[in-house]
Amino acid sequence: MKKHLLLLVFALLPMFTMADEGGSCGKDVSYTFETATGTLTIQGTGDMKNYNFTLTPWRSYRSDILVVIIKDGVTSIGNYAFFDCSALSFVSIPNSVTSIGANAFLGCTSLTAVDISDNVTSIGNSAFRDCTGLTSVTIGSGVKKIGNFAFSCGVNLSSINVNMNIPIEIDESVFEYTGGNYSSDIIYLAATLNVPAGTKALYSNVASWKNFMNIQEPEPEPEPQPEPEPEPSAINNVNGNATSSTYYTVGGAQLKNAQRGLNIVRMSDGTTRKVMVK
Q1: Which residue of 69, 121, 239, 265 has the fewest C-beta atoms within 10 A of its own C-beta?
Q2: Contact predicate 242/273, CB 8 Å
């Protein structure tokens, strides 16, 4: 009997050691980690806590984090929040977030795309540095400051979509590559900078956006053209069913169709009329 109980305990042990985690990561912000899906959820109101690279609550299982969901109500992503979460491939940043801390996603090598909302005003130093798998970044219209080396990601970064109608000045290091084997300006040389319609000239003259060799803006929308006026159709005789047969100018020249202005119209019943076409 004891042997069977011991076997049952050992069989259940992995279930307990793989149990979900949770706790506080800010004054009114908490987290839960779902082991089965590798999902770390941050929820609450206000700012996340700032950390250094060794003190995040999920440090011991950071390599198991595949997805980060930040719920609406959280207003900041703390320093070093997801540092070295090397398996993290997707992050959802809500509209309530206004700042992304320094080194927040440093070394998240499996992250492939980041969409930063229009409400974010500040992106800290090295926020996405060494995210070597990153291919696409969208930067919202509300950003006022981008820290040094914020997007020093790597050679895979090919599409940078910026929604700011008036570009802010940034340091050259923001998109500078520091991984070796390539020129430090490889991102500026190889990536496409997509900017709002009508702003390409602005970006081409502002530091350091102007370093990008390929700046694209959408084609302007074609101006609506007035619809052509319909050809004058048959003119009915108000006194019967006769229709227009032949059109003439007031000078007697025959016309193929009625023209704008005064026309002489011979009706099908043999009568003539003066008709004004506007």
Answers
A1: 239
A2: no
